[in-house]
Amino acid sequence: MPRRYDSADAKRRILTACVRFFLEKGYTRTTVAEIVKEADVSISTFQNVFRTKDGVLVELVKFMFGSQFDMAGQTLFRSAGQKLPPVYVYAVETSIQLALTELNENLRDIYLEAYSHTEASEYIYQHTSSELYRIFGPYLPSYTESDFYELEIGSAGIMRGYMSRPCDKYFTLEKKLARFLSMSLNAYAVPVAEQKQVLDFIAKLDIRAIAVQVMQELFKALAMRFSFPLPDSVKT
Q1: Model-level pTM?
Q2: Which of 51, 130, 159, 236 has its Cβ near the most Cβ atoms within 10 Å?
């Protein structure tokens, strides 16, 4: 019989169980039954706190997307040894996202659900559009943050489509990154000459190795944030 807890403690236990399961086996394959068993709460307690596991996804997305630009900026600084323009940070950040989904199928599952779920995707649109306004506002001076919100809906759709299609020997990760960045940078009115410089910069990076570093940092941050030991299955 599950024990009773106050709502804050129950939420912590549920989040801890969910995030660990999501990382170990993916969002789709994680069931509510195993969540409540691991969290030691009743189904009714789970439903009172989150309603469905989609509610947990929103919490996870807020944490992941709330720090990804900072992670990309720090990673870029370490790789380049200098602070580069924001458009380069955008290129690295989006490239890392796409690379992460090739490195880890459970992360692919989480990202695809995040971009598909109404509340989670709305958070992504709103959070990212403010970053896009800051980064690309100088290229589109007449555009408001609302305009960038509309553009983000389109670029997020492309991002999800590319995430859902695993790379193969014909459509390599390098081709995927170049295609996505060409389309997005063109949409944000980055001059062609500068686009080429950005693409050349990304092509010279070992984006897989960088994504592995970011993935390890992300897993550690999630384990610390949601108070669970990092499983061996997600350490490499």
Answers
A1: 0.83
A2: 159
